[in-house]
């Protein structure tokens, strides 16, 4: 069922330096809200800087949907410290507002008025805004305000160069890409472990179910919040943020060149559904960037995806084609409401272990039938992950094993990897995290979703969310004198505003001409 990797782990024990130099990055989304819990009606605060050009603080879909982006680093403590400083800095500039601590936005019966993110008058800014108009017209606006954590992860090039050589690969670029695709396929097969452990969206406002297929019988609390007793991450379900199914696009993560071509096809293929929306309104304003299946590369929403830093004017697919995969982006993490910054060190340690494990385990190529089975497992964990004696499919629909059986196998390997990483840094951090989190399978009440649901049922989403938002805001304000990056962030805020102004002055093309060139 799961490959025995004792020989591979033995190789790592002999060569522990192979795992030195893991780089990570975090992107955290959070809604700005008023003190009463309503969506903020204010534009992106000028004092924070330009959402178009700021390196670390921008907006996602909505004007009040902040996105914090850390630099990449091989130091976990620095990463978390920088992310904390971004929160402290922002809290000091929005003293009359708060940051919502959950992935799922709160509203009662009345749908909130949502302003799509604005990025100024430049063609680049208009393009970002038009893309978001397209998202609204294609999928709705409330669904686009769901927040998450993206975790970027790369193994050292030294690891890939010394890993099992594949004679069929012509160069290191192809080999590294092949290794990351192996990791991605394993993440799809076993990555349901992440929403089981860390899923924090077991409930949603009733509005989310208005147009959704009701596969399960939901319960309702007194504030009209719907929940399932065993659910983990409804954000990842078809109730939450989903779009065109990658099965329909035939994107399988088996070969980098096939991946690029199938992705490119989705970007270039017209969609009848989106054609019917129309490209422009009656006044000639764009309603979406185009009427293709995907407007741009970012519109493909998956649990994990291959990434590479791009040069100015270069698309992601061009970068992947020219230089291969540089890192992977994990997109299946809910906001951790028990952490002021939405993610904890313990989670990062576990993610490191699991992603290394995904790289070590051999992963057969995946086809549509495999992917259907994978999708069923994810769905089972998302909707009923904490159900007693829950089972998932293994290899085929006739073979199942319990989560406890599978977790025992996986965590045995994770603990061995933890020992190697701890020996490298002369501490017990990874082993401690591994031991603690493994207990979540024996006792599902320890999972984040179980803890969340307990609060949401007893105290309600609004009351719990405001309590945490105010608690964290007070903490950030009181600690802002500890902000080691205060001067850097103040300078970046001013610089970003000037940079946006310069971009707007340099435009010479009309927006329509600009769009045609993209």
Automatic annotation (TrEMBL):
First-tier enzyme category under EC: ligase
Family (UniProt): Belongs to the glutamate--cysteine ligase type 1 family. Type 1 subfamily.
Descriptive protein name: Glutamate--cysteine ligase
GO biological process: glutathione biosynthetic process
TM spans (from-to): none
One cellular-component annotation, GO: cytosol
GO-annotated molecular function: ATP binding; glutamate-cysteine ligase activity; metal ion binding
SUPFAM superfamilies: Glutamine synthetase/guanido kinase (SSF55931)
NCBIfam families assigned to the protein according to its UniProt record, in alphabetical order: glu_cys_ligase (TIGR01434)
Reactions listed under catalytic activity: L-cysteine + L-glutamate + ATP = gamma-L-glutamyl-L-cysteine + ADP + phosphate + H(+)
Key word RNA-binding present: no
Keywords recorded for this protein, A-Z: ATP-binding, Glutathione biosynthesis, Ligase, Nucleotide-binding
Record-annotated Glutamate--cysteine ligase domain positions: 15-381
Known EC number: 6.3.2.2
InterPro entries noted in UniProt: Gln_synth/guanido_kin_cat_dom, Glu_cys_ligase, Glut_cys_ligase
Pathway: Sulfur metabolism; glutathione biosynthesis; glutathione from L-cysteine and L-glutamate: step 1/2
Name of the encoding gene: gshA
């Amino acid at each position: 069922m799961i490959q025995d990797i004792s020989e591979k782990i033995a190789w790592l024990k002999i060569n522990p330096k192979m795992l030195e130099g893991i780089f990570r990055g975090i992107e955290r989304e959070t809604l700005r809200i008023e003190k009463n819990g309503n969506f903020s009606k204010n534009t992106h605060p000028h004092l924070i800087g330009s959402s178009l050009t700021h390196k670390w603080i921008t907006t996602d879909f909505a004007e009040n949907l902040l996105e914090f982006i850390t630099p990449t680093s091989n130091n976990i403590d620095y990463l978390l410290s920088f992310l904390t400083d971004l929160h402290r800095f922002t809290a000091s500039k929005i003293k009359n507002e708060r940051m919502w601590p959950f992935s799922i936005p709160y509203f009662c019966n009345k749908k909130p008025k949502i302003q799509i993110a604005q990025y100024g008058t430049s063609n680049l800014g208009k393009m970002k805004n038009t893309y978001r108009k397209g998202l609204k017209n294609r999928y709705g606006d409330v669904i686009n305000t769901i927040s998450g954590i993206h975790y970027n992860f790369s193994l050292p090039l030294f690891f890939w160069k010394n890993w099992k050589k594949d004679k069929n690969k012509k160069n290191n670029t192809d080999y590294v890409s092949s290794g990351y695709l192996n990791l991605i396929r394993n993440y799809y097969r076993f990555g349901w472990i992440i929403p089981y452990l860390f899923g924090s969206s077991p409930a949603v406002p009733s509005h989310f179910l208005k147009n959704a297929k009701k596969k399960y019988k939901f319960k309702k609390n007194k504030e009209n919040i719907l929940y399932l007793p065993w659910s983990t991450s409804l954000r990842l379900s078809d109730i939450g943020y989903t779009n065109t199914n990658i099965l329909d696009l035939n994107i399988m993560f088996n070969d980098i060149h096939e991946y690029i071509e199938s992705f490119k096809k989705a970007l270039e293929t017209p969609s009848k559904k989106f054609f019917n929306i129309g490209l422009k309104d009656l006044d000639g304003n764009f309603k979406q960037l185009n009427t293709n299946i995907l407007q741009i590369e970012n519109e493909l929403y998956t649990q994990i995806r291959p990434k590479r830093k791009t040069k100015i004017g270069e698309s992601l697919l061009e970068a992947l084609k020219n230089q291969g995969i540089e890192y992977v982006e994990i997109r299946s993490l809910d906001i951790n409401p028990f952490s002021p910054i939405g993610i904890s060190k313990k989670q990062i340690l576990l993610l490191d272990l699991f992603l290394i494990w995904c790289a070590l385990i051999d992963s057969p190529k995946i086809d549509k039938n495999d992917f259907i089975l994978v999708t069923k497992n994810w769905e089972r964990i998302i909707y009923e992950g904490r159900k007693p004696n829950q089972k998932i499919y293994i290899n085929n629909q006739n073979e199942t094993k319990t989560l406890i059986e599978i977790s025992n196998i996986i965590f045995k390997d994770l603990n061995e990897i933890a020992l190697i990483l701890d020996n490298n840094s002369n501490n017990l951090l990874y082993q401690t995290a591994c031991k603690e989190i493994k207990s979540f399978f024996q006792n599902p009440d320890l999972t984040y979703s179980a803890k969340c649901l307990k609060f949401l049922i007893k105290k309600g989403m609004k009351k719990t969310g405001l309590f945490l938002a105010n608690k964290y805001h007070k903490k950030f304000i009181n600690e802002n004198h500890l902000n080691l990056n205060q001067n850097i962030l103040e300078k970046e805020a001013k610089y970003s505003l000037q940079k946006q102004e310069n971009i707007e002055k340099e435009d010479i093309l009309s927006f329509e001409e600009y769009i045609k060139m993209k």
